[in-house]
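Bench log, entry 3. Co-assembly request; chain sequences pasted below exactly as received.
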Amino acid sequence: MSAVPRRSAAGTDGPVAGPGRPVATSAKPVPVPTPETQPFWDGCAAGELRIQRCVECAMPYFYPRPVCPSCGSARVEWFTASGRATLYSYVINHRPARGFENDGPYAIAVVQLAEGPRMMTAITGVPATPEDLVLDMPLRVGFARRGDVCLPVFSPVQDRS
Amino acid sequence: MSRNPAAIIAGAAETDQIGKLPGHSTLQLHVEAALNAVADAGLTLKDIDGIATVSAPGPVQVAHSLGIVPRWIDGTGVGGTSFLLHVRHAAAAIAAGYASTVLVTHGESGRSRVAATRYAPEPSSPAGQFETPYGTMGATTTFTIPALRYMKDYGLTHEQLAYVAVAQRHWAARNPRAAYRDPITVDDVLASRIVAYPFHLLECCLVTDGGGALIVTSADRAADFPKPAVQVLGTGESSETPLISQLADFTESLAFRLAGQAAFAEAGITVADVDHLMIYDAFAHVPIYGLEALGFVAKGEAGAFIADGNTEPGGSLPLNTNGGGLSYTHTGMYGMFAILEAVRQLRGEAAAQVAGPQISVVLGNGGMFATAGVLVLGSQPR
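Structure output for the full assembly:
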């Protein structure tokens, strides 16, 4: 048996710190739209969360693709979602990805849109702690510039009663 | 059993060493494992007429490196469960007459990264557009995301999640080849640093170098080999989603369930027939999802089932008896090692040997609950 292996947390990709080799900070990843996803990114640039639904069975869905995942119809259309969502699940990442070195621990979340589909996102406007990130809390979409695109992000909705 | 098996595993071996092997390229790990498995079966390379492995290096490279001229090739690469699918496909190919003796290889320089494959998604891929921009970095940040939902919906506690690692360390303590053998407690697990909340370091798999290989051939040759033949009684495979965010229900794996149902039905068994179980454990929650998907416990009960000691030495359902990805080894695509431990148990040659198991089930995961394979394996009738 050879030396003790490290755990996946010790990482094999991304910047590596070591003697004489400081942690490199690099740009955060920027999505590259494809023809079938361009309307989504155009929506984000216009401040709207545009997703797809099936014309045949009315099922809304995300991520963008040309065929309804529920009934298989190719008759699908884009519409603007409400932007309301709830927090479905998350992790708080303590081992930053490339470009996130200066962010401190950050939440990688999956939210459930009011219309039903789920998407991965960031949670903004609240500390990334288990106490502040309560599952099923109401959220609202916002948009954050990243390179040539705007990324949808979500933040808690204040009680408006 | 309801039927005669179509195929057997006649040879099975790991690389000489596992752990940290900076002197081995990825390809060399495949080659060394292949030679060991061929020798284990008492065969020569000239006996091999079918090849199955993942890219890279892929079946063409592995076959060429070994001087094998295949008449059947399978390059299915769907993550760490690929080798379970290779066994399934090889059994079908053998039944169809496309091959007689198939070599399945795994090798991965997961830790030393010698001639290793990179997994970074393209920025135009679905993952590159809709996940990596949020700071995901491999399995620790994606495979783990469903767990909090499960914890809220089914009351799984942090202590129960931690106990998965404790239970498997009990097995590893009996295995000289395991990377980590010192006993640990729930407090040790919860005191280890947080990697991606709610997961602590000791709830994450190792990253190692190593390889393994299998020889699959027809069941009518069961008496022709030096080691007891292991019967391939039932197999299943399925997939759900390439994106963790699109898993239909974060509290269960559809692919695990469908692959398990297919394998159990083909073998004609129920959970009551299973003497030994391997569930791919990249993270501590995966055995919990696996136990429930295969029907060993009801939904929401697996955490307590493990914490009550049922899966550790002396328990009713020995699980991950090599120590698993959490304590034994995890090269990146761990599925081969799960199969190999099941083979050793059924042959009666495991380090932490269970008393006379007749049926062992192996559940492999690929990606982040993306794909699944299940094998129902049986010991040679005596």
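The longest strand of chain A covers residues 84-93. Chain A touches chain B through 51 residues (CB under 8 Å).
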